[in-house]
## 1
Amino acid sequence: MHSTGVDRRGTRERRRDTLERLEAERDVWVSTAHPERGPHQVPLWFRWDGRAVWMCTGAASVTARNLRTEPRVRLALPDTFDVVLLQGEAECFPGERVPPDAAEGFAAKFGWDPRAEEGSFVYVCVVPKTVRAWRGEPELRGRVIMRDGTWL
């Protein structure tokens, strides 16, 4: 691996930049797995509420089925140079049981309210336990910026 000419950010700057991206970005890659069927990865819209990532998917989707069996999940923002990876456990909420502020925040961000759809949807909440962030090779060391649910 070679240097990209990027200055190395400290933990504080990485945290600030990560929080800004979580607030501004629209899409996140969601990686789940089933013990018998293996890994599954899809992009979903998401909303960051300052504590957790909220997504929505069809109740019968592979993602929802996997999370019911194995709630551990990895999320990745869609940039291969300015990397942000989050790990945690997902909790699924049917539309009628989702906290109103989460559903309303999601609808406000995207102009789409899954609760108004005919199909059955689940909201997926992930409170990160681990967050890694790095920009190129100079930042590989020190890339963990949250451990055990606590920002470093």
## 2
Amino acid sequence: MASEEPAVAHWLFGDQLGPHFIDPARGGPRRDVPLLMIEARGVFRRRRFHRAKAHLILSAMRHRAAELGDRVRYVKADSYREGLEAVGDGPVTVHHPTSHAALGFVRSLPSVRVLPARGFLVTHDAFTSWAAARGTKQLRQEDFYRWVRQAHDLLMEGDRPAGGRWNLDHDNRQPPPRDVTALGVPAPYRPRESAIDEEVRADLDRWSRDGDVRFVGEDAPRAFPATRREALAALHRFADHRLATFGAYEDAILAKDATMSHSLLSSSLNLGLLDPAECVELAETRWRSGDVPLNSAEGFVRQIAGWREFVWHVYWHFGDEYRDRNVLRHHRALPDWFTELSPEGTDANCLSHALDQVRGAGWTHHIPRLMILGSFALQRGWEPRAVTDWFHRSFVDGYDWVMVPNVVGMSQYADGGRMTTKPYTSGGAYIDRMSDYCGPCRYKPSVRVGEDACPFTSGYWNLLHRHRERFEHNARMVQAVRGLDRLRDLDELLAQEAARED
């Protein structure tokens, strides 16, 4: 049998930048195969991305090209198709891309051969087998997480979870300490910009001036790693100085301490600069050496080996049509102040702070995303696909595979419970308990009607009423729905919400 025609180049997408994407021992191309990188400006022209996100992606790509030197051909083009013309009609290999659109495109090209995905702990085939064995349309992260822990021997003691419990969430939901404005832990790693960053910023400025590309948000000095070396420094600083306090306060919020003890590694993982295996293994090493408590190590491992892996596979398992799920039939448009990241557009202190953080950094941690930004969108009945697009464009770590399951499935409950057991939303009491936002706010979390009514509290009850028939059949929602019958001012609340302008 004739040998397969060798590839003339291996194509690296802009989120495949770590060494594990070109390691022959891990399914990458041979070391003598040239590499191709395509910087497609049309990607930024089609959608209005956060300026800091565009900067980070281009900086990371150009830094990687500089590291690879003569082995890589770096093509600046309007589209991927145009960029591929630089290598002619010869065969090209590429690792499985991270979006349905990109995968459909590369599979449509007869000259491109798609290699297995990299950058995740679980293969597509392994997940498919696990899901098939479940025998149900509903997939649950907790079941998947336990399976991954066992399969990869993560935080295990024999066949049992370390400490005797799989889930330490009960220990990891503490409110912030009282009477403090910051958690008091060492600051996260911050990179130093290079000449490449200056070049990127100049290009983005020119594109904006020419009206070729429009951005949203601010491009402050780059706050997230753009190279493998920076990402490793960020990982080890987190493990050495911040992981120990991560667990207990991972769901807490302080207005003047946006990062708390969070790792800020999501963008590095999603650019491919870090491998998830090295992250969870380091956390386990720190726990076994006695440097960090088990609840912190488990909380971090859960985020990566549990939730990140689950979201990746749900994205592919449910298919491209999943993004259009909208069982609650929410169709309202996002208001301009929200899409423009304008904190001045709302008097709600928590929402204003969250938008300000996104505008300035293109990042907030998971609780402002889920329980403030996402919860508000759900309560207001905004169209889930538009909310998904907003999160994708506005966050430096936002990619299609990240945001479709996180927003459609979790944040907006638009799939009706295929990946979560209930809608993730709350009244103002939760925000008051888990943050210091409510004290100086003009609204009162306990008030649901009138000038002082918290928009989250009134919005919560309005949402339950609007979808009562559906939620009263959900075991985890039935008690909340029954609470509607105890509201003497329900009619007044509903009239108030009907007249509210977002």
## 3
Amino acid sequence: MGRKNDDVSVTEESPNSTQLNSEKKKKKNKNKDKLQNETTTPKRKQNDIELQQNDTESTKKKNKKNKHHVSTDTVDEETKVDNGNGDETVTERVVVVTGKNAEDSKYAAVKTFAESGLPEKVLECCKGFKNPSPIQSRAWPFLLDGRDLIGIAATGSGKTLAFGIPAIMHIMKKGKNRSAKGRKPLCLMLSPTRELAQQISDVMCDAGRACGVESICLYGGTSKGPQISSLKSGVDIIIGTPGRIQDLIEMGVLSLKEASFVVLDEADRMLDMGFEQVVRSILGQTSSVRQMVMFSATWPLEVHHLAQEFMDPNPVKVVVGSEDLAANHDVMQIVEVLDERARDNRLVALLEKYHKSQRGWKAVSIHGDKAQHARTKALSLFKEGTCPLMVATDVAARGLDIPDVEVVINYSFPLTTEDYVHRIGRTGRAGKKGVAHTFFTQQNKGLAGELVNVLREAGQNVPEALMKFGTHVKKKESKLYGAHFKEIAADAPKSTKIKFDSDDED
């Protein structure tokens, strides 16, 4: 992935849904006229009239019950439908909100920061944005009202502040009379990776500064000493990875008994990485009366089960875009099918296109075997622009929120299409446009069908060479790692914890 000064021009086309609906309506009316003109017997004609009258009465009653409301303050049509069980579904453009009483006026989308009614010091962190993002616009009214919420949104859509600002408000309301020193955290935010945890921490530290809300980031690969000292001093928000948080709980230096606002960010990835048992254990340590928030790019069955177990029976669900696997539409996806041996030359050509240089390119790298301090330094150099090119493994696939990343190059296609979606999501963030070049080889043909679906959903060009591999979506399984999202039997042996030298540091 790289940064550069020149803008990348991106064009995007979307299907004309109005025209399609019009054609369907014409076809329906044509069929209806045809049926009415058919020759029928008097008896059959009388029966048809009676049936039509009954259908009309039934339709009137149904429409009276499920009345559609067209809002005048939105660009596109907004519908509110009663599902018959007390839940309502609200659809607005590409945002779908489902939940009990979702149609109440108090849960109306927040169009501007002024409409939110939040204190100026809380909104201080939003001064660089014109209006709330779609996920913020829809999630804030529910979260500020204390509702449990499930958020499905693409990477780079403003999810952190979507749950971060309500978390700060929760702390300000509950922590008015708390002592400053030694106070227990009121909020917990779990993340699957160090990079994502640090990213959330950076946002929350900035957002909480004006409000006096303090956060700490807890993750492995670094000394526990400073983290323990900060915990003893007293903090409001705990942000971290499951492994390190569980370690500190077991050591008796971290108590989550007062944590009444709990967030699981990238919940799908957390379970995919094998953290389910640890996550369940940590959630069991939090306050029995809590507000639960789960954010995820996709919604697999395992995450659904976790939500059913730990959330309110009637959580609100906000889906921005698609609940299925979908890429950020602000990213132009260019997929090139080529031979493995041709990748090096093509990579050099792309680098010369985006980073003109005569004697190589100044770059940094990030990978799992690199020490945490080295990874942090590499990220810092990349963010500053000192090294405009980063070479990374999938440890950088999530959690890197760097607005100026304009190009992502996938030298190798990832093990799963989900990881592909996250990789290209390092660009095109916060409404900006981006470009992603992806090399696809014969060895990746098993994922061709899923990739074609992702490209089509985003209105991107599908190469003919990619179509030759077929469009069948196969079982998610890798020759190297086996099946993904594999069900684990209840009597399966428990995992053995592996400790690294860095975990024993004081």
## 4
Amino acid sequence: MVEHPAGGYKKLFETVEELSSPVTAHVTGRIPTWLRGSLLRCGPGLFEVGAEPFYHLFDGQALLHKFDFKEGHVTYHRRFVRTDAYVRAMTEKRIVITEFGTYAYPDPCKNIFSRFFSYFKGVEVTDNALVNVYPVGEDYYACTETNFITKINPDTLETIKQVDLCKYVSVNGATAHPHVENDGTVYNIGNCFGKNFSLAYNIIRIPPLQAGQSACLQMSSFGLTPNYIVFVETPVKINLLKFLSSWSLWGANYMDCFESNETMGVWLHVAEKKKGRLLNIKYRTSAFNLFHHINTFEDNGFLIVDLCTWKGFEFVYNYLYLANLRANWDEVKKQAEKAPQPEARRYVLPLRIDKADTGKNLVTLPYTTATATLRSDETVWLEPEVIFSGPRHAFEFPQINYKKYGGKPYTYTYGLGLNHFVPDRLCKLNVKTKETWVWQEPDSYPSEPIFVSHPDALEEDDGVVLSIVISPGSGPKPAYLLILNAKDMSEVARAEVEVNIPVTFHGLFKRA
């Protein structure tokens, strides 16, 4: 267990300024000549407005980052996304729109009557697009998990316009982890309000653009294979009645409206992709939290679903308040020991069910210990195979060679290693043998690893892994872009900058 008593990880949660123009990075090692394009990343960059702090990791205002690669040279640029939440906060010099874990109080300058009535105007949903960046056709969007996505210019990082998904499809929000198929089709899952204050789930499909068209739908994670969509329903839910009433009446934030159901466990829902129709098979397992799918694929009448789980029904987001993450190391460890524990797991879902097999394990694949048992109530109870586990060590923010192996049998995944919630290493995992390779340096805090395949790759792991690392104790260059050999996780090069870079969540590599 690596210790971090100096607390350098606190620099991940410090406000920074945007840059007026790109800065040149100092390169050590040699950038591969074939690596041409831009690494785009998204995360929070403003953690307070004036004297008003944001309280949760998912509240800071969205900052877009870009590392450009051209002929062995690297530049770094960043700009805040001009969302309504950001622009109004800058204009009024206070937090105007309620975020995930921070309530926005009514304007104190208004009189008591106008403040009272502002409580009853309904919920103003944030458009703070700090979680991910993804393409739709030739356009790029920054997003969070509400119904708003923000079109951005990937070259200049300028904000182009806000798009409300509600105007195009019947959803109140959508995941920040859509799947983009090789032909450009985008799949996502959204939720909408159903009858009797229930939540329903909708599959969103954005077809690939034809030549000359623009996108008609300027549009947590799920599994997608050539024939199926897998959605995991965890025990953590938004209480819709509380969301619609209490929010207006006594000033709740999103976190106040989540509830954990101690008895429901987890349900896995499978839909046929082409027909959009749910399979009439009820898959169940014990309770866990889930943020990221690793990969999902089909094999001989089974769906193999690989997930980054957190064991138990308690909401892991409860431990991601900034006060927890900025605490001294001993306190960070103490809190993490109380939290749900991380585990990467493989579940196997049989697609053909025969009632004569009640009581039997239906999994016949030779390479997994995962089981699926048909019960007398016709539910299929799943027990996983553990593919990565360490005490308070998470394998999270998983990435694969997505273009060639997304939705297909695969061998390797790359992840960000969290040590008591502190990101302190990068991992490569062989999901078949469970062998791991690790990159780690003292007082260095990386971000999600992005795999970039070599243009002439013959093997699944031919390529490089890119990650933004902060190393606040190492002199005048506190952050750098790290380039690793994807085969053995050895360092190829780094591009250092003279500015701090706060935490980033997700992103992509846009080839030149």
